[in-house]
Amino acid sequence: MIEVRGLSKRYGSTVAVDGLSFDVRPGIVTGFLGPNGAGKSTTMRMVLGLDVPDAGEARIGGRRYRDLRWPLREVGALLEARTFHPGRSGRDHLRALAASNGLPRSRVEEVLGLVGLTEVAGRRAGRFSLGMGQRLGIAAALLGDPGVLLLDEPVNGLDPAGIRWVRDLLRSLAAQGRAVLVSSHLIGEIARTADHVVVIGRGRLLADTSVAELSARSPSLEEAFFELTDDSAEYRGTLGSEGRTS
Amino acid sequence: MTTTAATPGRYRFSHVARMEWAKLRSLRSTWWVLAVTVAGAIGIAVAVGVNTEDAAADLTNNALAGISLGLLLVGVLGVLAMTGEFSSGMIRATLAAIPNRPLVLAAKAAVFGTVALAVGEAAGFIAFFAGTAALPDGIPAPALGQPGVLRAVVLGGAGFCLVGLIGLGLGAIVRHTPAAIAVLVGGVYVLAQFVAVATQALMPYLPIAIVANSLTVAQPMADDQVRFLSPWAGLGVLGLYAAVTLGVGAWLLARRDA
């Protein structure tokens, strides 16, 4: 369970996330949608304690991230940008992370097998393709067998078989009772993977509803997404005058 | 479902240190930089030894001349141990695994410092024996039992370690590899040239001067114009530099977005 409450973050004069609140519940896949620059990645980094919010907070199982006792055993994360050193092998990368949270080396081999990297795990990760890098990131997220998963654009660089593999993986992880938050710019992919969807635009919450309910509003989830984000732009345009009267 | 409930306790310093050791040893650059440093220290010791003409010179200090030159390499290695995490994005994996940021830097410093100390001491002793063995006939070689000789060899290795830690702290403060290396080279080498010309009063406090003229001397430096620090005072000042850079680095690491 992830609870995001009133989360706000600005970089200089740019508001990245603006009073965002939502929950990510266990047992389902929650899709995280929004146009580029909507604040999805920033929100995920704040949940993980990597960026400090200007206001609000995020809690995981009732705790702030920095208070987790074994972070990798409680939360697994795949971030949008690469998070491994190019000079280190995939196996050594995972072994270092495993050591930090007291996980056995056998678990490293398990997750390597799970993501299909066993054969190439001894190679320097800098030589990995984009898809192999994503698989290494997913392996790192699964390392501690966590109850909460955050995945930022997990299908980036994957081929159709890889995309399908991620979809099945996320659904099975949720079916095991885990809370799964997954962002993607591929709306069709979210429609097929997620049960619930959180839509944001310019850092603000636009919708927090089931995929079925949102899809029913429009001919497709994609249409519903564009209607929501278009509305957000119009709402933005009138905010100045309304903001002063309220 | 998850292992959370079944696993008591929480991550401790020993876990973080194991992670940092796994990271340090799994990069080839670590080993070849250290190997080059040791080889360089030995090569310079032999070259200086062979060309010695003055039996009254501080032959121990001469044999350890390569340690001072190796400072640049261990400093750069320290910088890279931190900036490599920022440039690759690894820092986000590290801090997601261990959100206690000062603990991460403390473990990094402990692991890197231990490796640098071991390599520095090995380089110091091998360079001392190689350099003194290379002395020409007729010039008596210093022995470890003579006053100040063992101290000079041991403190040379310690200085090597402390400059590496200064590099690590600078990496945490500056974060970008080229900029951090520029600050390191500027602070340890280039600054020394300017200070030597401008004001000699500050000369004894420069890192390079501390290692070359305080830590690695068996006989006090006889210089009419500059009074260099005593070996132990030099060690204290250099240790203070390392502590301050690491302290500021830890403070900034904890405050800035990753």
What tags apply to this protein structure?
heterodimer; A: 246 residues; alpha/beta; Rossmann fold; 6-stranded mixed β-sheet; 3-stranded antiparallel β-sheet; globular; B: 258 residues; mainly alpha
Task: Kindly describe this structure.
Chain A is α/β, with parallel strands linked by helices and 246 residues long. Chain A has helices at 40-47, 71-74, 90-100, 105-115, 130-142, 160-175, 187-193, 211-217, 221-245; strands spanning 2-11, 14-24, 29-33, 55-60, 75-78, 148-152, 179-183, 196-201, 204-210. Chain A has a single domain, classed as 3-Layer(aba) Sandwich (Rossmann fold), CATH 3.40.50. Chain A has a 6-stranded mixed beta sheet with strand order 5-6-7-3-8-9, sandwiched between helices. The longest helix of chain A has 25 residues, at 221-245. Chain A is globular. Chain B has 258 residues and is mostly helical. Chain B is 73% helix and 0% strand. Chain B has 10 helices and no strands. In chain B, helix 1 (13-25) crosses helix 6 (101-133) and helix 4 packs parallel to helix 7. At the A-B interface, helix 2 and helix 3 of A face helix 1, helix 4 and helix 5 of B.
The coarse overall form of chain A would be globular
Q: Tell me, what is the CATH class of chain A?
A: Alpha Beta
Output the structural class of chain B.
Answer: mainly alpha
Radius of gyration of chain B: 20 Å
> Which stretches of chain A are poorly predicted, pLDDT < 50 over at least 5 residues?
234-246
Q: What fraction, in percent, of the residue positions of chain B are helical?
A: over 70%
The main sheet of chain A comes to: 6 strands, mixed
How many beta-strand segments of chain A? 9
Reconstruct the topology from this structure.
The complex is a heterodimer of chains A (246) and B (258).
Chain A: E1 2-11, E2 14-24, E3 29-33, H1 40-47, E4 55-60, H2 71-74, E5 75-78, H3 90-100, H4 105-115, H5 130-142, E6 148-152, H6 160-175, E7 179-183, H7 187-193, E8 196-201, E9 204-210, H8 211-217, H9 221-245
Parallel strand pairs in A: 3-7, 3-8, 5-6, 6-7
Antiparallel strand pairs in A: 1-2, 1-4, 8-9
Helix pairs in contact in A: 3-4, 4-5, 8-9
Chain B: H1 13-25, H2 28-50, H3 59-63, H4 65-88, H5 90-97, H6 101-133, H7 149-174, H8 177-198, H9 207-215, H10 231-255
Helix pairs in contact in B: 1-6, 2-4, 2-6, 4-5, 4-6, 4-7, 4-8, 6-7, 6-10, 7-8, 7-9, 7-10, 9-10
